[in-house]
Specification:
Helices cover 32% and strands 24% of the residues. By secondary structure, it is of the alpha/beta class.
């Protein structure tokens, strides 16, 4: 397979409202005043992955659906501001999808999604194929938008990558997100048993070529089928940690970038840990990304 630097990312984009509260409660509780606790942003795994890849210097074909409303217009403007190709982001919904995240002082979260009328609107497969043909790696987010694309990707010689939030309770409709992926990303917080055993079981069940799991205590666990390798890579500290939001997406994006350049999962894992670590010093979910040149310097300093 010939490697190039163009990557397709497919996933939902949404408006996100984050509410910081003292404690998550099952019952409704009225709070008179909580200054500076409600924040709005545009979000979605596809947006975070695309933004990180863009900073690293990759050309990204972003596939998504937004609304014909003000929020959809703003998202398109934001993409252009970041330099992300918005040609394949279509305004097919009447209203842009929304997400509400409640976060308490212990960092416990509750998420609520409103996908609007997504199930009534499908992306044009011919346009998806046009975007895909320009790319060597296809990253499909674990959401309803990407469901229809798996069968298409399987007919082409492309590296298919995806992330699955909860490997231990995958719905039947989601199993192909795992089974068809050459590269599978996930998090250790979703694994019920010992991490290495879980990864080996998943690899045996689904036949993935590469599995990269972000570890709760930092670092990552890597599985490579062709070498029958599984091993832990420790966290590398690059600067003071300010915000951990988006750390896993940063890990996944930088791995895709490096693997697309080198086809080496071991170097890609080390470099992605450098990228993730530096990102943790940023103030927000979309802050703290570094360029490929900066990443190479950081990698050489830490590992050579």
């Amino acid at each position: 397979m010939k490697s190039c630097n163009k990557i397709l990312v497919s996933g939902l984009l949404s408006k996100k409202v984050t509410l910081n509260i003292p404690k998550l409660l099952d019952n409704v509780e009225f709070i008179n005043s909580c200054p500076c606790t409600v924040n709005e942003a545009f979000s979605g795994e596809a947006l975070n992955i695309s933004r990180a890849l863009n900073v690293l210097g990759d050309d990204v074909n972003l596939i998504s659906i937004v609304g014909k409303d003000l929020y959809g217009d703003i998202i398109l403007k934001e993409l252009r501001k970041y330099g992300i190709n918005s040609d394949f982001v279509h305004q097919l919904l009447e209203d842009t999808a929304q997400e509400i995240v409640m976060v308490d002082e212990y960092k416990e979260k509750k998420r609520y999604f409103d996908f609007k009328e997504l199930e009534k609107n499908s992306y044009d497969n011919d346009i998806f194929c046009k975007a895909m043909n320009e790319c060597s790696i296809i990253f499909l987010c674990d959401d309803d938008l990407s469901n229809d694309f798996f069968n298409i990707v399987n007919d082409y010689q492309k590296v298919l990558a995806t992330s699955v939030e909860n490997l231990e309770s995958v719905q039947l409709s989601r199993k192909r997100f795992i089974h068809n992926a050459n590269i599978l990303f996930s998090s250790s917080k979703c694994l019920d048993e010992e991490i290495e055993s879980s990864i080996k079981r998943i690899a045996d069940d689904y036949g993935n070529d590469i599995i990269l799991v972000s570890l709760d205590d930092g670092g990552a666990m890597l599985y490579v089928r062709k070498d029958n390798f599984i091993g832990k890579y420790p966290f590398v500290k690059t600067r003071k940690i300010i915000n951990t939001d988006g750390r896993e997406k940063a890990l996944y994006a930088s791995f895709l970038h490096c693997y697309n350049k080198t086809l080496d999962p071991y170097i890609s894992t080390k470099k992605s840990l450098c990228f993730e670590s530096y990102k943790l010093g940023g103030k927000g979910e979309m802050d703290g990304f570094i360029t490929e040149e900066q990443l190479d310097k950081l990698y050489n300093f830490l590992y050579n």
